[in-house]
Design brief:
four-stranded antiparallel sheet, globular, 7% helix, mainly beta, Neuraminidase
Length: 493
């Protein structure tokens, strides 16, 4: 009988499987890997996806420390953000009654804004992207914010200048002040020609299986919106990158673009078709991108575009064998996180299934799972030490990698999985300790390394009388010693 070692908690075991549609039924949750000497320490905020809402004790977004202890929960979802002082903002409700709420640490509502079609993202000036940057003057204010940028939808729209007079759902951006007064507004329907969709792409919309002339079609689906913020390109005279301009990503047509705040025109874009420019071809086709933003000033890579390129399916155009109607013509079954120079379109850094395996190819011990894939949601954040925090949202897996793709921290969401076996996180952000004065920062000795066993060592042993199985780690050498030997075969001639 194989020797059993120390029984440990499931949440501190091995790496979870990554593909959104290929998870095992049982896998570890909580912090599964932690290398304190290489990770950037802080609290991590997990914003759950809107379809995770339920009337259970698990409902809501939450804050954890580096060892996965839950410190606080809020009944908010989508792009949940924390501001200095322990204030938190996010969405609550459903379509036609969605509110953006800001709560203090005790859960009191200090600001709210009702928008019938609020969708996924909001930013508070002067922080362009809503996460931590060491640059002074860019911490988002908790109270009396001068401007809040909101991504929304206008509902149905009849477009007579598009093929077949299609009824499409419009998208809009607007800014409001603290009193709720609208200061600025922009509608995608006024600028759809600037997306440069092909004639074949527009015709494909008319035969989309989900098209309903009474309900319209969610043909674009803008999932992220941010300010450009201070950057070296504007400092060098490139007006496209005015800090006040806005960067957004469109999931369904594989598009990232910049809106000039003054003219309203789309003055920079990547997509929808990578074949349009040689420099785009080197990047490869974006598919269903999320969380696109310019890395803020004061962080490594400042000025570059950081985007979670989901993969899966997306795009419009000529019919293909897998997409006879011309909808979702692009297919790729893995995700990428791309850092791109937005002027030259050179890929500066990439994390994907293939780049994650580079440590193996160099002869080092592999530190990451072989498959990296989230069909929807997700984001990435650049950290002050040059690491990148990645939210593989479709699997509820949040992890931190170094510039050379070493995995130094990993957390797998457990709340929503316990509800419906579908642990989806919309976004995640790492927060510095000083932003939450209500909590006592951990001491150095409080940061406990999490070293997972090899998969060959992890077992579940049956419980007695039908009780819950117990996780154990077996002695690997004893296991190999006791493992039945293969039969010796004669040598082949």
């Amino acid at each position: 009988m194989k020797k059993l070692c120390t029984v440990i908690m499931v949440m501190s075991l091995c790496v979870a499987a990554s593909p959104a549609m290929a998870q095992p039924e049982i896998h570890p949750t909580g912090v599964t890997i932690y290398k304190p000497e290489k990770a950037w320490p802080g609290y991590t905020l997990l914003g759950v996806a809107p379809f995770n809402q339920s009337k259970t004790e698990y409902d809501g977004s939450y804050l954890i420390n580096m060892n996965g202890d839950v410190l606080k929960k809020w009944p908010l979802y989508d792009s949940v953000k924390i501001y200095p002082g322990g204030y938190v903002s996010g969405q609550r409700g459903v379509h036609n009654s969605t509110k953006m709420l800001e709560l203090d640490w005790d859960g009191n509502v200090v600001w709210s804004y009702l928008d019938h079609r609020m969708n996924h993202d909001a930013q508070r000036w002067p922080n362009p992207v809503g996460y931590y940057t060491p640059e002074k003057g860019m911490a988002p204010p908790a109270l009396n914010a001068p401007r809040t940028l909101i991504n929304s939808g206008e509902g149905l729209l009849q477009k007579h200048d598009m093929p077949n007079n299609l009824v499409l759902r419009d998208c809009q951006f607007f800014e409001v002040d603290w009193s709720g007064k609208v200061l600025w507004q922009w509608k995608l329907s006024d600028h759809w020609k600037e997306l440069n969709l092909s004639e074949q792409a527009l015709k494909a919309l008319a035969v989309n299986k989900k098209y309903d002339p009474k309900k319209g079609l969610d043909w674009a689906h803008i999932n992220s919106l941010s300010y450009i913020g201070p950057n070296p390109w504007y400092d060098a005279g490139d007006e496209r990158f005015n800090p006040e301009n806005l960067l957004f990503s469109i999931r369904n047509i594989n598009f990232v673009g910049i809106v000039d705040k003054k003219s309203g025109k789309i003055v920079w874009r990547l997509g929808p078709d990578a074949r349009e420019q040689k420099s785009w071809m080197k990047i490869g086709q974006l598919i269903g991108p999320h969380g696109a933003h310019i890395i803020p000033k004061g962080l490594p890579g400042a000025g570059n575009l950081l985007v979670f390129d989901n993969g899966g399916y997306g795009g419009l155009g000529n019919s293909t064998g897998t997409s006879p109607d011309g909808n979702n013509i692009e297919r790729r079954h893995y995700s990428r996180v791309l850092e791109i120079n937005p002027v030259t379109f050179q890929t500066v850094w990439e994390y994907s299934t293939y780049t994650a395996l580079q440590p193996t190819l160099k002869g080092n011990t592999r530190q990451v799972s072989k498959v990296f894939f989230s069909l929807f949601t997700s984001n990435a954040q650049r950290l002050p030490n040059g690491n990148t925090l990645i939210c593989e949202g479709g699997t509820g897996r949040i992890f931190e990698v170094t510039a050379d793709n070493e995995l130094v921290w990993e957390f797998v969401d457990y709340y929503s999985r316990d509800i419906d076996n579908f642990n989806t996180v919309f976004r995640a952000y790492r927060i510095p300790y000083e932003w939450i004065p209500q909590l006592t920062p951990p001491k150095k000795e409080d940061h406990k390394a999490v070293i997972p066993p090899r998969m060959i060592q992890f077992r579940l042993i049956p419980g007695e009388n039908g009780s819950v199985a117990k996780p154990v780690v077996i002695d690997e050498q004893q296991f190999l010693k006791d493992d039945p030997a293969l039969p010796v075969l004669p040598k082949l001639d």
